Amino acid sequence: MAGYPRAVARLVEALERLPGIGPKSAQRLALWMLRQPSERVTAMAQAFLDAVTQVHLCEVCGFFAETDRCTICADPRREAQLVCVVADARELLAIEQTGQFPGLYHVLGGVLSPLDGIGPEELSVAGLLDRVGGGTIGETILALNPTPEGDTTAAYLARLLKPRGVRVTRPAMGLPVGGELSYADKVTLERALAGRQEL
Amino acid sequence: MFLERLELNDFRSWEQLRLQFEAPLTILAGANGQGKTNILEAVLLLAQTRSPRTGRDSELVRRGQREAVVRGEIRRQRGAAGTVAVALRSDGSKVVKIDGQPVRRLVDAVGALAVVFFGPDELRLVSGGPETRRNYLNGCLGQLSPRYLAALAGYRGVLRQRNQLLRSARERPVGGDLLAAFDDGLAAQAAILMAERCRGVEQLSRHAATAHYELSAGAETLQVTYRPHVSLPAEPDPERLQTAVLEQLARRRDEELRRATTLVGPHRDDLAIRLNEVEARTYGSQGQQRTAALALKMAELRVLSTVLDEPAVLLLDDVLSELDDTRRRQVLALIDETDQVVVTCAQTSGFDERSLARSSLWEVAGGAVVARSSP
Ligand SMILES: Nc1ncnc2c1ncn2[C@@H]1O[C@H](COP(=O)(O)OP(=O)(O)OP(=O)(O)O)[C@@H](O)[C@H]1O
Ligand SMILES: [Mg+2]
Ligand SMILES: [Zn+2]
Question: Which domains does chain A have, with CATH numbers?
């Protein structure tokens, strides 16, 4: 029985590894690619390569960066005394979209979840404490999703941060309970950050 | 509220079943193991998006099949008719659709179909362990408010996480701050759930007292109260509840670490049920316990019907044969308070003329349901 040539089969297999792509979609994508002019496909492949080789995590905050530091950390106009702690890049981008946040960020890389084997060591908690230890940070805003996991992670960070003499706040209510920050609209998010509350 | 049509595909023992309900009372009669309870379970699944009979949805899929689909068409006294459908895969995934639209969170499906289920387990509501009463409470209050379900889900979520943390503490020490953060998380969710339970039990309790008064012709008083595992502060507001839970957690910290599980919180709550001021579980006769259980189920039906502003559907699984004549008549009289009752039984001898006159009598046997013309 004849099947796809080996190179095509390997392409289908590779595409199947993408999140949300099953065998059927993978085949559809592969067949589409094979019908494209070769420059277009080469450009796509190059984009993949560039992204993974040129982008890494910012050594300060953990957001994506093309040099040692991300563009946010490298921007001298940002207020270094104010740091917004988020679970991942999606929330950072949602807050950046408001265009109103003047400070820097810290990307934890997730929230505490013993069931998934995620403890403080799996998150960049030590990195956050180091930054706070540096002495320039006056306030940390814990912008974690208002879910039980987000709440627990915020409680944990608050316990570590407060004794170090920084202000610890959380975005004000108004975010739907159990909802996600990255889904909140601009206005809601802006208001939540403006009306943040002391923990 | 009236479930007009029920369709099962590869659900439990049913490969394909289509039922069109018409009478206020439907009697499903048949020998053991013919799939009668499975039909009621399908209705419960539509109402609650899960089955109280099993923790694993995959058990509901007919053995050897990949997907079970249950669909119901509901007619309401108020508001438009609607459909609810639940599809379960053997890999455990689930899709719930209301009026053809998938719901994002299962909580959003609550209330589309409201049912009260009364089976042999419920007969043991009073005599059984705390878990039966917690299930009753969750089933009841969960149908009453999406807020309750959210609180329950939130609490169960942190509880599982915290238990895992305690288990992992056996292998390597867990920092004090980390454990304390999970205490905070647990206490916050516990407080919300406990506050919901306080409020819900108060409502239930009033209806249960009335129902019991009717059932016992005024001879006994039934008192149902919330018996939280962490005793309530004088003012049970969330903040004080949280403090109370945290205090208990601190007190039992060492024991929790030793046993690697959470020993404090509403997952160990109970209901206190007293007849004429004495504990019914310990001192009630079997008959008294059953009457009290019946009163609790009637209370559930009435609370739910009050909140919805129309009666819920009543499902009776095999309970009539276990009740004496008087109680059976009292249960069947509930038909007058509802739009629809569906009963399963082995024999049809226990029904009075009045009920039979308003019933469809269906025989369940050999993988089919057929109408029986006369009993
Ligand atoms: N996932 C499944 N796939 C196939 N058959 C199943 C499945 N789950 C349960 N069954 C079958 O369903 C039958 C039980 O059905 P059910 O409990 O509805 O019976 P019943 O008519 O209520 O009996 P009883 O009068 O004893 O209560 C059993 O024969 C069981 O093997
Ligand atoms: Mg049965
Ligand atoms: Zn950075």
Answer: 77-169 (3.40.1360.10)
